[in-house]
C-alpha cells in the first residue's frame, strides 16, 4: 500500500534488524526493522522492512518492540525504503502468560542457560513477570539462577511498567527516549511525575534532557514565559550557547540581556532584575558593577583557579638539573652536533629548568620542536623524567615522532571523559597521574580551551615538577572558550620565551615568509588583480570559480600522489567547509576513486543510505585514510593478527548487566584506549558478516561497529583547516571557496604552516585579501587575561570572594579541614607536623626532670 507524508501508523510490532546511523553525542539513531505482522497495513519494502528514525535507545539486533510511526517521505527517498519517524514506544508488560514468557525470552536472548532454568522451574501457564514483580521468584530457590540475576530481571519489569506510567501521564509531550532518561534519573515513575508536575524545569537535571526540551514541556504545561525558574535556567542556556560557544568567557550585561531577550522571547524588564549582584549570585552568575560584566560562577571560578595556579607555579623557582650540569650539557650538545644555540634557545633551556611554569612561543619555522627535542635529550641523558602531552592524537603523534619520546593526549593522560567541560565543578584535579615526572610538556597549547587548561594547571604539584607550554599563539584559537596561550604569552609575570629567528630556509622560505607577513600584519605581497603569487614553494593561484578550483585541486592531488609513489601519508588537502563542491565530503569521495579504488573480492563498507551532499552512499575500503570524528575514552582494541577484540575479563553468566533496552547479556570487558576527535588512521580490516571494521590509529588497532559509523569516521584525504591543527605533511593543497566562509588570518596562517615542503593554494585573491584582515584572536575576551594583567582582581570582581563561590559549587564535607595555600617559594618545602600542646608540655617536663 502507499502512504502519504505525515500519516500515522499505531501499535506496529517490529523486530530490529540493524542500526543504520547514530549521531555522535546524541540519542538520534536510525534503525532498519522488520514488521512482525505480515497483515499490518503499513508500507514496507519487498523484504518486509522499514526504517525508523528519531531519538531512541540503543537496540541490539533482534530486539522486538511496539511503536507508533509517522511516515516520512523525504527520509524514504534518502534511505531507499519506506521510512518513519518514531512518535511513541509502547512500554508496559503483556498481561497473558504466553506474552510474558515471550517478553522474558527476548530479555534473556543472550543468556539461554538462565532462560532454560527458569522454564524448568516455573510452569508455562503462570505469569512469570508478575511473579518477578511481586517477589515470588525471589523467595523461590531456583537452581542455577542467583538472586542477582532475579533482581535485575525484576528491575527490567519495574522499568517497563514505570515507563508506561510515565507515558500515560505525559503522552507525546516528551520523546520516548526522554521517558527512559527520566526513569533512569528518578528510579520511580510516581515520584518523577510528582516532582515534574511541581517543577517542570527539574527535567534539566535529567541527563540527556536539555533546556530546550524542558522549556517546551514547561510552556505546554502553562508555565508563563517570564516565570522566574524559566528565566534562571534560560540565562544559563543562553550563556552556554551564545557566549561560551563564541570563545568568550564573559559578556557585557547589556549584550547578554539582549541575547536572553531574543532567545526567551521576554522583555528586558524580565531579565535585568536577575542580573543585580545578589540575584545573579542566586542564579549562578557573577557580575561586575564597575565594568557592567557578567559570567557564570563556574567559569569564573575556573579562571580564578587558573590565575591562582599560574601565580603559584610562577613562584616556584628551583633547578631540576643542577645549573652547572645543564651548562655543561648544552656545551657538549653543541660540540657533538656542531651547532651553536642562539640566546633565545639557551634562555628557554635554562628557564624551563628553573621556573615552575614556562611558555615557549614562536612562529612556524622558528625551531620550537627542535629545541624541545634538545631539552628532552639533555634531561633524559641526566635521568630526568618527562611527560609529553598534546590536545589531540594527531599533535601527540607529531610530538612523539620528533622527540622519540612517548606522548599522549591530555584527555588520556588526565583520564578525562569526552564532554568533561560540562561536568560539575570539582575542587581536586588529577595530581597523582605523573608519577616521578620532573617535567610536564604540553605541545600545541594554542588549542587549549579554558576548561582543558584549568585541568592541566591544577594537575601539577609545582614543588615536585615544572610545567612547560609550547605553541604558536597566532594559530587558530581553541574551539571553545578562552584564549589561554595568548594570555600567558602576553603576561610579563609568566616566564615566556618567544623564538623569532626563522631557521627553515631554502625552498621553504616562501611559505614562512608569507606566514610571517600575515602574522606581523604587514602588507600582503599580492593583490586582487594579479593571476598568481609564486615565491619558493609557496604558490597561490587566483581562481574565482568554485568548480574550477575543485577540479584543479583534484588534478594537483593526483599528480602529487603519483609522484610520491601513490602514498597519501605525506599529502594533505585543506578546505574551509564540509559540504558543497569544494567541501570536505565531495573532495574525499573524488580522491578515493583513484587513491583507494574498489578491489575485486575485497570487502568494503557501503552506507545503507545516500549522502545528501555527494548524492552517493559513503564507502570505506581497506587502505582508506580516515579521521576519528568523536572522542571515545573506551575505544575497544583489536588484535591485528586475528582481528578480534582483545578480551580483558569475562564474568560468570550469573553476573549479568541490563543493556539500554530490555536485554540481559553476559558482560564482557575488552581492553580499551582513548581516541580523540581529529585522530587519523588507516582501515586495515572490514568484516561485512559481523558488521565491523578496524582502524590503525597511532599503532593501536581500534574496533568500529557499522552502526552509526559515518558519525564516528570520515575519509581524511581532505580535511578542514580546523581539523588539521597539530599535523604536518610534506605537500599541502589548499582550496578556498569564494564565499570566504571560515577564512581569516589565523586559519590561513595555520593552513600554510602545515606544509613542510610545498604549499599550493587556489582561491579568489580579492576575497583572501579582505579576509586576511580578520584576526579571531583579537575578538576573543576572557577574564584570565585581565587577571594576569592586573586590570581585574580575582577577589573584588564580584561582591563575593572566590572561596565563597567554591563553597557553592563544590561544598566541603561537614567539618572537613581546608588546606591552606603555601607561600613558600623554595624547592620541596619542609614537612611540618602539628603536635598536641599537652603532649609537648609533658615532654618538656620530662626533659627538665632529667
From TrEMBL:
Protein's UniProt name: RecD
The entry's keywords: ATP-binding, Nucleotide-binding
Cellular component GO terms held in the UniProt record: exodeoxyribonuclease V complex
Gene Ontology terms describing biological process: DNA recombination
Record-linked InterPro entries: Coronavir_polyprotein_1ab, P-loop_NTPase, RecD2-like_HHH, UvrD-like_helicase_C
Residue ranges constituting the ATP-dependent RecD2 DNA helicase-like helix-hairpin-helix domain according to the UniProt record: 178-250
The UvrD-like helicase C-terminal domain, residue ranges: 715-757
GO MF annotation, one: ATP binding
Pfam families to which the protein is assigned, alphabetical: AAA_30, HHH_RecD2, UvrD_C_2
SUPFAM superfamilies referenced in this protein's UniProt entry, alphabetically: P-loop containing nucleoside triphosphate hydrolases
Coiled-coil features, chain-numbered ranges: none
Amino acid at each position: 500500500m502507499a502512504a502519504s507524508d505525515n500519516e500515522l501508523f499505531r501499535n506496529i510490532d517490529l523486530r530490529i534488524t540493524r542500526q543504520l546511523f547514530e549521531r555522535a553525542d546524541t540519542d538520534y539513531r536510525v534503525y532498519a526493522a522488520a514488521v512482525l505482522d505480515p497483515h499490518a497495513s503499513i508500507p514496507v519494502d519487498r523484504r518486509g522492512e522499514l526504517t525508523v528514525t528519531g531519538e531512541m535507545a540503543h537496540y541490539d539486533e533482534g530486539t522486538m518492540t511496539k511503536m507508533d510511526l509517522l511516515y516520512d517521505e523525504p527520509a524514504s527517498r534518502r534511505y531507499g525504503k519506506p521510512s518513519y519517524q518514531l512518535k511513541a514506544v509502547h512500554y508496559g508488560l503483556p498481561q497473558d502468560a504466553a506474552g510474558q514468557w515471550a517478553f522474558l525470552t527476548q530479555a534473556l536472548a543472550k543468556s539461554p542457560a538462565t532462560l532454560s532454568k527458569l522454564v524448568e522451574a516455573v510452569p508455562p501457564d503462570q505469569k512469570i513477570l508478575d511473579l518477578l514483580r511481586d517477589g515470588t521468584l525471589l523467595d523461590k530457590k531456583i537452581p542455577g539462577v542467583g538472586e542477582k540475576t532475579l533482581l535485575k530481571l525484576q528491575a527490567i519489569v519495574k522499568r517497563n511498567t514505570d515507563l508506561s506510567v510515565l507515558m500515560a501521564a505525559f503522552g507525546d509531550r516528551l520523546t520516548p527516549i526522554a521517558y527512559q532518561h527520566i526513569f533512569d534519573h528518578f528510579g520511580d515513575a510516581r515520584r518523577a511525575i510528582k516532582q515534574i508536575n511541581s517543577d517542570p524545569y527539574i527535567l534539566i537535571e535529567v541527563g540527556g534532557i536539555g533546556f530546550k526540551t524542558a522549556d517546551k514541556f514547561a510552556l505546554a504545561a502553562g508555565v508563563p514565559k517570564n516565570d522566574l525558574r524559566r528565566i534562571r535556567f534560560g540565562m544559563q542556556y543562553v550563556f552556554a550557547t551564545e557566549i561560551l560557544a563564541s570563545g568568550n568567557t564573559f559578556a557585557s550585561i547589556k549584550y547578554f540581556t539582549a541575547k536572553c531577550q531574543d532567545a526567551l522571547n521576554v522583555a528586558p524588564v524580565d531579565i535585568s532584575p536577575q542580573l543585580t549582584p545578589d540575584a545573579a549570585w542566586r542564579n549562578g552568575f557573577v557580575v561586575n558593577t564597575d565594568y557592567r560584566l557578567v559570567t557564570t560562577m563556574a567559569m569564573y571560578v575556573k579562571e580564578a583557579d587558573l590565575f591562582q595556579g599560574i601565580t603559584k607555579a610562577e613562584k616556584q623557582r628551583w633547578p631540576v638539573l643542577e645549573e652547572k650540569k645543564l651548562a655543561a650539557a648544552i656545551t657538549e650538545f653543541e660540540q657533538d652536533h656542531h651547532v651553536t644555540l642562539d640566546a633565545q634557545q639557551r634562555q628557554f633551556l635554562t628557564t624551563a629548568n628553573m621556573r615552575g611554569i614556562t611558555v615557549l612561543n614562536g612562529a612556524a619555522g622558528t625551531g620550537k620542536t627542535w629545541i624541545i627535542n634538545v631539552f628532552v635529550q639533555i634531561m633524559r641523558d641526566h635521568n630526568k623524567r618527562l611527560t609529553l602531552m598534546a590536545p589531540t592524537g594527531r599533535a601527540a603523534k607529531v610530538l612523539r615522532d620528533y622527540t622519540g619520546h612517548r606522548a599522549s593526549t591530555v584527555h588520556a593522560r588526565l583520564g578525562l571523559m569526552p564532554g568533561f567541560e560540562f561536568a560539575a565543578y570539582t575542587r581536586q584535579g588529577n595530581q597523582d597521574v605523573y608519577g616521578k615526572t620532573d617535567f610536564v610538556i604540553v605541545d600545541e597549547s594554542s588549542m587549549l580551551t579554558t576548561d582543558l587548561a584549568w585541568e592541566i594547571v591544577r594537575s601539577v604539584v609545582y614543588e615536585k615538577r615544572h610545567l612547560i607550554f609550547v605553541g604558536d599563539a597566532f594559530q587558530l584559537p581553541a574551539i571553545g572558550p578562552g584564549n589561554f596561550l595568548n594570555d600567558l604569552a602576553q603576561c610579563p609575570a609568566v616566564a615566556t620565551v618567544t623564538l623569532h629567528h626563522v631557521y627553515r630556509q631554502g625552498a621553504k622560505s616562501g611559505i614562512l615568509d608569507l606566514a610571517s607577513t600575515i602574522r606581523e600584519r604587514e602588507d600582503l605581497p599580492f593583490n586582487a588583480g594579479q593571476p598568481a603569487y609564486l615565491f619558493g614553494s609557496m604558490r597561490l593561484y587566483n581562481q574565482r570559480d568554485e568548480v574550477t578550483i575543485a577540479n584543479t585541486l583534484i588534478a594537483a592531488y593526483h599528480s602529487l600522489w603519483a609522484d610520491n609513489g601513490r602514498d597519501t601519508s605525506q599529502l594533505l588537502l585543506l578546505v574551509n567547509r564540509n559540504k558543497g563542491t569544494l567541501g570536505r565530503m565531495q573532495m574525499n569521495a573524488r580522491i578515493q576513486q583513484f587513491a583507494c579504488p574498489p578491489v575485486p573480492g575485497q570487502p568494503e563498507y557501503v552506507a545503507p543510505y545516500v549522502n545528501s551532499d555527494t548524492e552517493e552512499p559513503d564507502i570505506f575500503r581497506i587502505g582508506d585514510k580516515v579521521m576519528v570524528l568523536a572522542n571515545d575514552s573506551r575505544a575497544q582494541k583489536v588484535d591485528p593478527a586475528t582481528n578480534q577484540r582483545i578480551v580483558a575479563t569475562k564474568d560468570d553468566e550469573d553476573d549479568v548487566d541490563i543493556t539500554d533496552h530490555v536485554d540481559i547479556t553476559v558482560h564482557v570487558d575488552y581492553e580499551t584506549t582513548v581516541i580523540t576527535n581529529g585522530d587519523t588512521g588507516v582501515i586495515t580490516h572490514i568484516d561485512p558478516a559481523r558488521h565491523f571494521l578496524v582502524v590503525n590509529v597511532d599503532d593501536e588497532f581500534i574496533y568500529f561497529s557499522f552502526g552509526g559509523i559515518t558519525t564516528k569516521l570520515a575519509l581524511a584525504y581532505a580535511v578542514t583547516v580546523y581539523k588539521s591543527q597539530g599535523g604536518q605533511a610534506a605537500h599541502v593543497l589548499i582550496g578556498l571557496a569564494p564565499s570566504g566562509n571560515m577564512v581569516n588570518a589565523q586559519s590561513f596562517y595555520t593552513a600554510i604552516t602545515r606544509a613542510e615542503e610545498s604549499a599550493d593554494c587556489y582561491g579568489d585573491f580579492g576575497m583572501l585579501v579582505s579576509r586576511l584582515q580578520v584576526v579571531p584572536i583579537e575578538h576573543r575576551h576572557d577574564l584570565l587575561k585581565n587577571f594576569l594583567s592586573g586590570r581585574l582582581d580575582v577577589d573584588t570582581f564580584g561582591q563575593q570572594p572566590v572561596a565563597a563561590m567554591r563553597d557553592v559549587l563544590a561544598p566541603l564535607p561537614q567539618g572537613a579541614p581546608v588546606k591552606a595555600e603555601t607561600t613558600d617559594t623554595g624547592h620541596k618545602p619542609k614537612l611540618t607536623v602539628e603536635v598536641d600542646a599537652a603532649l609537648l608540655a609533658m615532654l618538656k617536663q620530662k626533659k627538665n626532670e632529667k
